[in-house]
Amino acid sequence: MVQRVSRLGELKQRKRLDAFLLTSQPSVKCFSGYFFNFETGPSPFQLLPAALVTVSNSESTLLIADTESHQLSTLRSGITVRSYISYTYDKPLDFERQFLIQLHDIIKEGKLQNARLGIEIDAIPAVITQSLHSRFPKIEFVDVTSEILLLRAVKDKDEIDLIRSSVALCDIGQMSALKNAKVGISELELFSKVRYEMESAAGSRIPILLDFISGKRTSASGGLPTNKTIESGDLVLSDLVPCLNGYWGDSCNTFVVGKATSSQMKAFDSVKEALQIGIDAVRPGVKAMQVDKLMRAHIGDFFHHGGHGIGTVYHEEPRIVPYNDIELVPNMVIALEPGIYKEDFGIRLEHSVVVTETGCEVLTKFNHCFDQYSI
Amino acid sequence: MVQRVSRLGELKQRKRLDAFLLTSQPSVKCFSGYFFNFETGPSPFQLLPAALVTVSNSESTLLIADTESHQLSTLRSGITVRSYISYTYDKPLDFERQFLIQLHDIIKEGKLQNARLGIEIDAIPAVITQSLHSRFPKIEFVDVTSEILLLRAVKDKDEIDLIRSSVALCDIGQMSALKNAKVGISELELFSKVRYEMESAAGSRIPILLDFISGKRTSASGGLPTNKTIESGDLVLSDLVPCLNGYWGDSCNTFVVGKATSSQMKAFDSVKEALQIGIDAVRPGVKAMQVDKLMRAHIGDFFHHGGHGIGTVYHEEPRIVPYNDIELVPNMVIALEPGIYKEDFGIRLEHSVVVTETGCEVLTKFNHCFDQYSI
Asked: Residue A57's closest CA among A30, A73, A78?
């Protein structure tokens, strides 16, 4: 059922590891199910919100800050949970030491004192490797960052369902943008309505990565909303990337408020065709770079990726880019996002798709439409 | 002028260091002025958004991801900026190596190959210390996390001004909550209006840490907004902690929608008195724990800190807690937040203040008021 954990087992064998110590938020989520919100930056009460020690399919321990224990509803079954004391007000903060004490215990109880330990070297604080090295000098660290990235690229059914829920929020957000955009509203006010409808559907606050720009600024392809008001004839580029329960969805629409120029209409149609060409090309065995190449061939080059995997991170393998010869396989989930950027406007359209046995299924149900009054 | 950098120089002497390599977001902001948004978690295109190598008051190098170079408007003068290649689509991502190449060059050019280097060991990825150790085996790492925390507690004038701007957003948010709360609105919808008014005043999207709860849930002291609608007689607890240009503001109000019970009114008055007692106690030479004790003496114990420093992190020294014998000094900025939590409701009120030569100045201008119609 949970094939990603089995693949972790294969990686363990291939690299002659004894266990993994995973510390990046995307990997902890992917392999344990545990998600913590990261919107306000690293907590001043934690060394890490969570770390996952995985020995085998049936032997995993999640070490979390005790203040996070209310967030365990999405945890995979069969994972042992231990917590460390993080926030205190009646005595000095001691979370670093508390984390390390618990981690040392996990190492000892798992008989990992001489282990070859797979780690994510970019995402593990130096205090952890130094402390383990000093306490258990025979532990050997092996960086498996790039292998884990590839391993996460193929999704299990439960992950695809989570991405579906997240992508459904994209659809709600795109409809809201189309419905609420009007002359005189500011980008920030329009986005606040979009965000509210997405969060209301989610039932909670959610992280949202975004480009949300209007008018001439669309030619720059990206940016955050400002107090600029929307004028008649402005394009609105709305790239919405919400994270629901740890999995990201992704979609982009561009539409006009008022009347578009014929050059803009032509560009919109071309980008929509390019996106469809990309979607039609997605199937097992096709190289990522081929999908990218076909889209660029239709609309000319643009200065960003043609697409990317989505999952517990908003941009992961398979990257749909000119150099990437990775072959698509079933259950990869990909966002495709071709764009045309002129001097005074830009248009980008994006769908999220899951690779099937014979092609792909488009997860985003929203139908890109350039004229807001035609919906 | 920038005394925090001079204090860094004193710390360097005291610990016999040759330089600092600072990697935590709050320290990079504090000592370089550079701020990056962290709302969507670590970037898949960066090892770190930024790292700061400081040798002396006049010799600092900020190493940033090249995609962040548009965010340099708040940089302190006299800092050399170098960037590393982070995002690429025409060739494979190589940000880890690119970061390390640049960092090695900075070490060589600064003649720091044999340096004692002050680091923040909880906030530096292991790949950086390992790579430096392997390339420059004579570099010695000295963890200065706790010293840096104390050093950041006293603010310079430019920092206090930034906190003032952030606190002004708190005032706007609290007025918005009072104004827009009504029977039938959901917590999420009310918060979306609050957030929009704060972001509109800021002119941009801003990170906001918050507790935003209503009704019985206020007895739990904290939590995020949900689809729960506000009923007549509900209390609304609104703790708003925005981050503007890297500095956090903090305020909390609790008010009733409709009519409060006499027990609630009494509790509100007591908490307001406790807050005033805390404010009156703040002056140079007073111990943090004394301020905490006075507030608890008035309203009884509550299960969180009585207050905390704010700055480039939303909770830092001086912590206003029972154990903390740190003495207050001018230009510390503190949020005080006493609370009463009963079985069916909770009330917390909070002001942000700056310690002056003779007492303190209250930065939050918002006047806590329990009845929304009396404003």
From this structure: A78
Q: Judge if ipTM > 0.90.
A: yes
Whole-angstrom distance, CA of residue B327 vs CA of residue B340:
26
Q: Which long-range contacts (CB under 8 A, 24 or more apart) does A147-151 make?
A: A147/A11, A147/A15, A148/A11, A148/A22, A148/A27, A148/A118, A148/A120, A149/A316, A149/A317, A150/A317, A150/A326, A151/A4, A151/A7, A151/A8, A151/A11
pLDDT in tens, A186-242: 999 999 999 999 999 999 999 999 999 999 999 999 999 999 999 999 999 999 999
**Number of A–B residue contacts, CB under 8 Å:** 160
Check the CA dihedral A243-A245-A249-A253 and report its sign. Answer: negative
Distance CA B230, CA B210 (A): 18
> Which of B244, B256, B218 has its CA nearest to residue B346?
B218
Kindly report the pTM of this predicted structure: 0.96
Partners of B254 in beta bridges: B237
Who among A124, A188, A303 is closest to B126 (CB)? A124
- Cβ count near A49 (within 10 Å): 23
Give the pLDDT band of residue A252 (cuts 50, 70, 90): very high
Q: Is the pLDDT of residue A256 over 90?
A: yes
Contact A224 B204 (CB under 8 A): yes
